[in-house]
Amino acid sequence: MKETVLTAPRGLPVKVRMEGPYTAVASLQVVCYFKHKPTGDFARGAPVELDKHMGGVIASLRDREEFRGDPLETILLTPPPNAIKAQALLLIGLGDEAMLSTGLMEQVGRAAVREASRLRAATVAFAPLIRDQGNDTIGTGEIERAVTRGVFLAYDTEKRLQEQGLAPAWTLESWEVEAGPAFYDETIAGVQKAIAEAAAAIAARSTEPYRRPAR
Q1: Dihedral sign, CA of 70, 136, 12, 80?
Q2: Predicted pLDDT at 41
Q3: What is the model's pLDDT at position 214?
Q4: How far is it, in rounded angstroms, from Cα 165 to Cα 158?
Q5: 166 — phi, psi (to 5°)?
Q6: Which CATH number goes with the domain that contains 31?
Q7: Which residue has the higher pLDDT, 83 or 40?
Q8: What is the C-alpha to C-alpha distance for residues 15 and 52, in angstroms, rounded to an integer?
Q9: What is the distance between the alpha carbons of residues 97 and 128, in angstroms, rounded to a whole number?
Q10: 3-state secondary structure of 4
Q11: Beta partners for 28?
Q12: For residue 48, what is the enclosing H or E element?
C-alpha cells in the first residue's frame, strides 16, 4: 500500500493512501453520496464494493429514501462484524450533482471533523467517491484541497475550544485520505495546497477568547 505522510496545522498527520474505504483500518470511515435518483444511481468501483461488504445496507437506505443524500445530510452506521475494517461508517450527502462545488466540499470536511469529535474518533479515513459516481466536473486535487482545508480549520476551532474549557479533550491522531492510483499525485498536491491555505487562515484568526466576561 502506497502512503505519503504530510503535517497539517496543529501538528495533525495527514496520510494519503492508495487504499479503498472497505480495507482502511480507522476509528471512522467517511464517504460521500450524491442525492439519490429514483431511476437509479450510477456507481462503480469503491462504492459498489463498499456496499457489498456492508451487505447492501447503503443501497437499501437510499432506495427507501431514508438516506437521500441531501447536502450535508449524515447517517452513522455500525458495520457488521468482519464487514469492513473501520469501526464506524459515516455517510455524508452531497445533494444534486449539478450543485457540486468546492465550497460544499469544504463544508463536508468541517462536518466530518465535528462528527469525529462527537464520537471521539482517534483516526478518520475519507473517500469522496465522486469519480466512482460518474462526476468529473471538479478536479480530484481541488476536491481534496477543499475537503482538507475544511478539516484543518474545523480541527483548529475544536482545539481552541478545548484550550478555553469549552469542549472536552480530544485529539485526532491522523486524517487519512484514500486515493486511487490514477489520482494519487493530484490528491497529494491538493492536500499540500490546503495545508498552506489553512495555515494562513489560522494565523489570521482572532486570539480573543470566545466567551465574553460577564458584566
Answers
A1: positive
A2: 73
A3: 75
A4: 11
A5: -105, 5
A6: 3.40.220.10
A7: 83
A8: 26
A9: 13
A10: strand
A11: 124
A12: helix 46-53
Q: How many helices (H) and strands (E) does the chain have?
A: 5, 7
Point out which residues pair with 164 in neighbouring strands.
none
Bridge pairing between strands 89-95 and 174-178: unpaired
Q: Which segments of 68-209 does DSSP mark as H helices, in order? A: 102-119, 140-163, 184-203
Domain of residue 49 covers 3-203
Q: Which among 61, 64, 67, 45 has a CA at the least distance from the CA of 130?
A: 45
Tally of structural domains, the chain: 1
Asked if the structure places residue 215 within a domain, the reply is no
Tell me the per-residue pLDDT of 9-64, one tens digit each, with 9 for 90 and over.
999 999 999 999 999 999 999 999 999 987 777 677 888 899 999 999 999 999 99
Which residue is associated with the grid cell 467517491? 129
Using only the alpha carbons of the chain, give its radius of gyration. Answer: 17
- Here the cell at position 110 is 468541517
DSSP, res 88 = -
Q: Which amino acid is at 61?
A: L
> What is the residue type of 94?
L
The answer to whether 167 touches 158, Cβ cutoff 8 Å, is: yes
Q: What angle do CA 20, 70, 183 make, to 5 degrees?
A: 30
pTM exceeds 0.85: yes
Q: Model confidence over 95-128: pLDDT tens digits?
A: 999 999 999 999 999 999 999 999 999 999 999 9
Residue 98 lies in a domain: yes
CA proximity to 12, closest of 154, 129, 144, 127: 154
